[in-house]
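Researcher: Structure for this, please.
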Amino acid sequence: MRIKITGGRLIDPFNELDKVQDLYIEDGKILARGQAPEDFVADEEINAKNQIVCPGLVDLRARLREPGFTHKGTVASETRAAVRGGITSLCCPPDTNPVIDTPAVVELIHQLAEKSGMAKVYPLGALTQGLEGHQLSEMNELQIAGCVGVSNDTAAVSTDVMRRAMEYATSLGLTVYLHAKDHGLSNGGYVHEGVVSVRLGLPGIPETAETIAVARDLQLIELTDIDAHFCQLSTASAVKMIARSQYDGAPVTADVTAHHLFLTELDIGYFNTQCHVQPPLRTERDRDALREALVNGTISAICSDHQPHDIDAKLAPFTSSEPGISALETLLPLTLRLVEEDVLSLSDALARITVLPANILGIDAGTIHVGAIADICIFDPESYWELNHDTITSFGKNTPFLGWDLKGRVTNTISNGRIVFQMEPGVIKNKALQVYEEVTP
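Model: Predicted structure, token format:
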């Protein structure tokens, strides 16, 4: 399919491009920018005037719930939600049912993603068999099957097993994705240990549950010389430790969830289960430190940590509710809000959800240079829209951002040179809110 995108503001952080140019796509790749190639005739033309054209977003962490939990979401439903949010590549953690610890499960996920035909899915393999923390998984076979890294997700791993796992991963050149959590100190907690946990009478998780785990893993990284990525940092102290390690030359990167950049323990209010997340929402000081770490580069990427849930999962009492936020469709607008609040420039913000997470995953994505795979996100930066049950495509409607007016709405998403999501301008109900009518490709 030949596609011409006209009049858009092209922003490609990798190539330091920020210019109004036309873009030409053919055979699934970027054919040209600016001047039309000779004899080029478009099968489809997209008018992107007053809109931003950027690389398709790359999400470092999104649970798709399939295989195993299809009442919460499927690969088809959640990749459809992903492209609705401009995401063309996403990384799936290994805590599916069955766990991603065999090539057969990896192949199943690839088949489901290919059948859906929406966003690309890159699985992480389990670090240990069944995520049980005892016997190492067959990492070599998982890598051959297509896993981009290994992780034990949030399950506990003893120090000796983690060392052996890192040594094995080092021999294969695999990145280990780490969730810094000392399970003994966490002790079944639900919220940050502090004034809110005391007021609500909820078991708390101290910041040391994160920092002690970070300290241990940093020592093992130095010992094994493994490429490591810390997922979902949540405390100021952990950020300082990572920054020092990076300064000393450790091969370490880190990410943060979008909701940890905006919400704090105070947003839990009176047992708001929509704010039940792991790691827990921390203090305002922690939130500000996470933002500062984005600015100085200690934290490379922003992820959604998408976890769709059925309605009942959040209707239970706080301690019985399931943690997590349905977050694919808020990744872009929340990142753009950091630009509105003068935390990041537009190019830097887009880099945190395109080329930088792509580099961490080691995949060919996140750029729109000539010859690159045509994964494109087009969005209207001035369009306001309300997040509600009707505007969420995901099976999961569980989010603390319900009712928020968000700025920045995806109008077109292209994956592998094919239009997988498109909206056409509709009726403007008021001066602040641009409403679009969805058009199924």
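Researcher: Any notable elements?
Model: The chain is about 30% helix and 25% strand. The chain has two domains: 3-53+371-385+403-439, 56-361.
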